[in-house]
Specification:
With about 425 residues, the chain is of the alpha+beta class. Helices cover about 40% and strands about 20% of the residues. The chain has an eight-stranded mixed β-sheet with strand order 1-10-11-12-15-9-8-4. A three-stranded mixed β-sheet has the order 7-13-14, with no helix packed on it. Strands 2-3 form a two-stranded antiparallel ribbon.
């Protein structure tokens, strides 16, 4: 949630920020400003009524028999209650509209309409291998029965898979390796629920805008699209001490997305699944340390790719491609030798105080001043896509796949 006071004071700046995210909200912003001004006016009127009511209450104490004063006090009390209801309705109307206002991009983010305007910051290719017999990962997994695609679809529907035998063990090894890396970098391991309520999804800005992409279990619960949701909500409605920060969390979960906006895109193989596995990193920190916390997640995810010896590149996302709640996002894209393309494997975002304002997550400094915290998240890494990258980049001529050296301590075999 954006700061409405700042929006009113800097309307044109916010409209420009929204436009840079391809959201044209002039009418909605004007409506919110008008409602907010009316809201302030009614609050002022209610306060005056309460003051008058207090004066009359004192008069009643000294003149308990004066029916005229009692009648006047009752009328003012009813007026105040009615005004309070109007204020609450206005508050809800403002919140409902403003919930669709995105976080505005940081000044340093490249202005652009879509992914075509993203900027490649650097490429790590020193571990790039020549794989003359490379194949798309879906051909490898189907031929060797590493993943049971048909059985997954028969049991659960399209884009549902079953890891089979040694492939399942490699996936578990990746999970353990990534968690160990994060723990070694100071993250606390958490096992969160995969069912969350509406409030948790609102707090992390998935609701109301992205409801069509979520799997709804009932009226109050949804399957998580990412562990960012439960991890970030660990500080919802809390006032933290400055000494506690930063809080650094890591979790491995299954994640669930309908991928409603990605029809026909990456439907083969393991790139875009409805149920997928991911190690997620979240940092809750001070606003002044935003860059440091952002970099901490970035470095953790980069190091995993380097230890797996997978070629990758780092992209700075333009304003039109960063997520709704993000003010700055960098993507890590891994090289897929079989399809000869880069694919996103981690997206690291600085959300600023956008989520914190929604969930009222604050901290108290040395001077006893309260301020909103800053939240950051990123994959460390997407497991299914990492597995796909390994089998494309580590494929051998005989059709087997070598196990990356860093995974060998977690497994009893060197190839599969």
């Amino acid at each position: 949630m954006i700061d409405l006071k700042k929006l009113i004071k800097n309307k044109e700046e916010y409209l420009e920020g929204f436009k840079n995210k391809n959201m044209f909200l002039n009418a909605e912003v004007d409506e919110v400003i008008n409602l907010y001004n009316l809201y302030l006016k009614k609050i002022n009127n209610e306060q005056k009524l309460r003051e008058n009511l207090n004066i009359l209450s004192e008069k009643i104490k000294t003149n308990p028999q004066d029916e005229k004063i009692k009648t006047e006090a009752k009328t003012i009390s009813n007026d105040a209650k009615e005004l309070k209801n109007e204020i609450n309705l206005l508050k809800k109307q403002i919140k409902d509209i403003a919930s669709y206002f995105p976080n505005i991009p940081s000044e340093e983010v490249v202005i652009g309409k879509d992914e075509k305007h993203n900027k490649v910051l650097y490429t790590k290719l020193d571990c790039l291998k020549d794989v003359p017999f490379a194949k798309p990962h879906w051909e490898i997994i189907e031929k060797n029965k590493l993943v049971l695609l048909n059985e997954g679809a028969n049991i659960s529907g399209k884009r549902q898979i079953i890891y089979n035998g040694k492939a399942a063990l490699v996936v578990k090894a990746l999970e353990k390796f990534m968690i160990d890396e994060a723990i070694n970098n100071g993250f606390k391991f958490i096992i969160p629920p995969v069912l969350v309520n509406k409030e948790a999804l609102y707090n992390t800005s998935q609701l109301p805008k992205f409801e069509e992409d979520l799997f709804k279990v009932n009226n109050d619960q949804y399957l998580i699209p990412t562990a960012e949701v439960p991890l970030t909500n660990l500080v919802a409605n809390k006032i933290l001490n400055i000494e506690e920060l930063p809080l650094k969390y890591v979790a491995f979960t299954d994640c669930f997305r309908k991928e409603a906006g990605a029809a026909g895109k990456d439907t083969r193989g393991l790139i875009r699944l409805h149920q997928f596995r991911k190690v997620e990193l979240v940092i809750i920190g001070l606003n002044k340390n935003e860059e440091k916390d952002f970099t901490t997640i970035l470095e953790n995810s980069k190091n995993i790719l380097e230890k797996l010896k997978l070629p990758y590149r780092v992209l700075e996302l333009c304003t039109g491609d960063i997520s709704f709640g993000s003010k700055k996002t960098w993507d890590l894209e891994v090289w897929m030798a079989g399809i000869k393309k880069y694919k996103e494997i981690s997206s690291i975002s600085n959300m600023g105080d956008f989520q914190a304002r929604r969930m009222q997550a604050r901290c108290v400094d040395e001077d006893n001043n309260k301020s909103l915290v800053s939240t950051h998240n990123g994959s460390g890494l997407a497991i299914d896509r990492t597995f796909a990258a390994i089998i494309e980049n580590y494929l051998q001529e005989d059709g087997s796949v070598n196990v990356p050296d860093v995974l060998k301590p977690y497994l009893s075999f060197d190839k599969f």
